[in-house]
Design brief:
Lambda_DNA-bd_dom_sf, 277 residues, alpha/beta, DNA binding, Helix-turn-helix domain-containing protein, Cro/C1-type_HTH
């Protein structure tokens, strides 16, 4: 169970939601564990909402309202608290990244977001959202850079990034951007003690995760989760049996990938091919 901590209820919509949930729960004479049992979740999970560690969830808020007899009060606060600079389908993933102890990602055609340079992220955003205005592009790129700066934190998660060789050859915004991006991967792989980079070569053939981006996260504060993403959509998966299947598939991809040193050598070789005219 998450112990109460002092929060300013008016600091943000998330802290106001948490303070209201706690107030209503205590008024109903329920512990976090008792409320969690009735809402089909753990007391720790309830505590993470009350302390603004996690963003409130629509389905859980609906259950809380039903159990506490509060109409749609928490559901309305939930909609306010879930507003984010990130797309709604990805905002919960960003939140879980902040709690993660380990992040394992497979990316079939692009450099993983946490490892992107700003120029690469900008070129990619402009290509995938061709009708977005400059302010929207800047906001999205800034959000991605905020995520990547987590790697500079002494308590950064262990990141295991596997990308397909195809990702090294998709030219995003010109030779210089690509060369700098690949050199950034090399630098992370060589010098960052908590980042491992591997490449699945073309010669490895098909594998279980070849259909799209997959991210696996573990945390000391939440159950393991998997996330899969396609164009303009994504799915966060927390069902234990399905998460276990994704972990087994990731193990197969890791086995098919080149060893870290060989992966960095391949990246370095491709980087040299991106010559500025």
């Amino acid at each position: 169970m998450t112990e109460p901590r002092q929060l300013d209820p008016y600091a943000s919509p998330m802290t106001f939601y948490g303070a209201e949930l706690r107030r209503l729960r205590e008024a109903a004479g329920l512990t976090q564990s008792q409320l969690g049992e009735r809402a089909f979740c753990s007391g720790t999970y309830v505590g993470q909402f009350e302390t603004a560690v996690r963003r409130p969830q629509p389905d859980t808020s609906r259950l809380f309202d039903e159990i506490l007899g509060t109409g749609e009060h928490l559901q309305r606060l939930c909609r306010l608290a879930r507003k984010s600079r990130y797309p709604d389908y990805f905002a919960d993933v960003v939140e879980l990244e902040m709690l993660a102890a380990t992040i394992s990602e497979y990316s079939p055609v692009l450099v993983p977001g946490l490892l992107q340079t700003e120029a690469y992220a900008r070129g990619l955003t402009q290509a995938t959202l061709p009708y977005a205005d400059d302010d929207e592009v800047r906001e999205l790129v800034a959000g991605r850079m905020d995520r990547s700066r987590r790697l500079d934190n002494p308590e950064a998660p262990e990141v295991w990034a596997i990308l397909h060789e195809a990702a090294l050859h998709v030219p995003v915004d010109g030779p210089k951007v690509m060369r700098d991006q690949l050199n950034h991967l090399i630098d992370l792989g060589l010098h960052h003690k908590r980042v491992i980079v591997q490449v699945v070569p073309y010669s490895a053939g098909p594998h279980p995760l070849m259909y799209g981006t997959t991210i696996l996260m573990t945390s000391n504060e939440a159950p393991p989760v998997a996330y899969t993403e396609g164009a303009h959509t994504g799915q966060l998966i927390d069902e234990p049996a399905l998460v276990a299947k994704f972990n087994r598939s990731y193990d197969h991809v890791r086995a098919a990938a080149l060893a870290p040193k060989a992966s960095l050598a391949l990246i370095e070789s491709v980087a040299k091919d991106y010559k500025t005219p």
